Input
Amino acid sequence: MLRKNKILTLLIFSVSIILFSFLLQKADNEGYLTDNNIIFKNVNSFTDSLFKGKNMQNKIIKSEEEWKNVLSPDQYRVLRQKGTERAFTGEYWNHFEKGVYCCAGCGAELFSSDSKFESHCGWPSYFIPLAEDRVYYVEDKSYGMIRTEVLCSKCDGHLGHVFDDGPEPTGLRYCINSVAIKFIPKK
Ligand SMILES: [Zn+2]
Output
């Protein structure tokens, strides 16, 4: 009798393990697995391999007081408090010179004018960052929507959101606040 119970317990245990691994595998395939809320798979396959900002070397870490001292009130509200500038009010929504757009918080080069396109949404829009590791993504469930927030890998500053209604070749639209970036013209 005792032996029978032991076998039964072992069997239930094994089945649970197999079921758990299966569910874990399924979640991973469907892109639901997150680590510290960072999305591995989100907008489409382009973002699948994207670098996780938290692993970035030479990160810039400042206290809220220090950020307040180096940023303008508008920059602080967007970059550090995840605010959004009003559409069609920023410096770059209608700006199409050749150059690079850097993070207004830390100066990291984030987007090239080559990937900027006219989205008519009122915010500067890009179809790809300058390099995969320049930004990272967090699921944003604020205001009753599910959006993908885009952050600067170097200083964790909030830049904007990414949507999957962009042009080829990525089909993505990085919708970025002008106040979170600084344009450097091409020399
Ligand atoms: Zn930054």
In short: The longest helix spans residues 2-29. The chain has two domains: 1-33, 40-185. The pocket of zinc ion is lined by residues 103, 105-106, 108, 152, 154-155, 157 (CB under 6 Å). The first strand starts at residue 34 and ends at 35.
